[in-house]
Amino acid sequence: MKIILTTILLFLSTFSFSKTIEVDTFLVRKEKDIALALDNLRNSKSKSELELNNITLISELKEIFNNPHLFDYNFTLLSTMSTITPEDKSFRLFNWNIEDEHQNHTHYCYLVKKGRGGKNKVYTFKEDKITLPPQPKGYLTPNRWYGALYYKIVTKKVGNKTFYTIFGYNGNNRSSNKKILDVFWFKGRTLRIGYPLFQDERDLEKLNYRVFFEYSDKATISLKYLADIDKIVFDHLTPEAPKLKGMYEYYVPDMTYDAYFWEDGFWHYQADIIVGNPKEISRRVYSIDPETGEETYKIVSVDWVNPVNPNSGDQKDIQVETENNQTKKSKKKKRKAKKKKNKRIRKKNKKGQPRSAIGNDGYHKLN
Hints:
The chain has 4 helices and 18 strands. The protein is of the alpha+beta class and 367 residues long.
């Protein structure tokens, strides 16, 4: 009996091992096919050849979308395609762009969400260059997409909702580039793009659905997530001259950095970040110069007051004042008031959101 049982177990383990090798071999082989199709796309000599090679690439990709190991496999050969996945491995992006002879970019994206019963859900993104404005606001769907190459995902939870803050790049045109902060989230099996999570630079009571950073094609900017301080840090952009305000092809970094930090369920804006001083939360206050008529700003502190009295020369007085201002009771009261304010901001920005209905294509359409 033991011999029979051992034989059965050996057979089952061998079968399981063979199946794993078969799955891995399939992805390895298909990755090579996709990489070849991608190289052919990049080396296209004409528009017609470009379009044909792109169709071939999409066809090769679709063959792997239902593979159960898709979310754990490292696609190291696909160097000119984004294949990122969030920490929870709930979905994976396959995202790339093509550039025409006029340096205009077209973007393609497929989001594959882990499904049940061995069948994954695939969302096809369709870039809309006709009806969408250059910097669209509000909710979007994969059927109405601005186009981007996504390179980073940061996962945050608010209650029972999971929000995926996603970082993107758009080559735009020969004059300017864009970097983008946006949010992916799921309502049932529906993918939504955008959510009011980003505090506005000028109006701290307002939350934006996404953030665009448009800048000169001659400049380079940074937009990255620093996990050790849980902040999104980015270059502050200004026009090269005041009269060029609003003409984003002339916007360049001014050598200062701003940030978003996560607190009470949304990304709070912070101006002129000093990474080594997490207490100092600041913002820009804008005003018009009465003599020149030009817009100017100054950096002011928010929700934190330096306890040192600059008018006092007595170190003991300073120490006493510091201790009085930093009591546990005042800290708790301050935190409670801030949390209440943040809750009010979230509630205010969720009001007036458009209702939605499921369309025939399975996506939410906004009324």
